[in-house]
């Protein structure tokens, strides 16, 4: 059984060549097999309604350093043409 805590959401951007895709970042924690899991996701609706999701999950609270690495990943992403 998975129980999800209240979600924290905020806008996010993904660099797509010289354009920016607007999306949303979601932070959540939940119990999985009695263990607390922490997760952040960045979700983007790309062209033609294809959904692109980036996820970071851990069994400890995600730190500011984790968030910086996640944002660096998003900033470095480029579609493979």
Describe how the helices and strands are arranged.
Layout: E1 2-4, E2 8-16, E3 19-32, E4 35-45, E5 51-58, H1 64-76
Antiparallel strand pairs: 1-3, 2-3, 3-4, 4-5
Keywords:
5-stranded antiparallel β-sheet; globular
Number of domains: 1
* Continuous helix count: 1
Shape: globular
Indicate the low-confidence ranges by residue numbers: 1-6
Strand content: over 45%
Task: Name the average pLDDT.
Answer: 77
Largest sheet: 5 strands, antiparallel
Determine the structural class based on helices, strands and strand pairing.
alpha+beta
Specify Rg, calculated over alpha carbons. Answer: 14 Å
Helix content: 10-25%
- Compressed to H and E, one letter per element, the order equals EEEEEH
Q: What is the terminal separation in angstroms?
A: 40 Å
The total strand number stands at 5
């Amino acid at each position: 059984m998975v129980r999800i805590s209240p979600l924290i959401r905020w806008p996010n951007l993904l660099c797509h060549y010289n354009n920016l895709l607007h999306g949303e970042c979601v932070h959540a924690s939940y119990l999985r097999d009695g263990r607390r899991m922490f997760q952040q996701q960045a979700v983007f609706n790309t062209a033609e309604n294809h959904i692109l999701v980036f996820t970071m999950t851990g069994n400890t609270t995600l730190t500011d350093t984790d968030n910086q690495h996640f944002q660096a990943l998003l900033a470095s992403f480029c579609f493979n043409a």
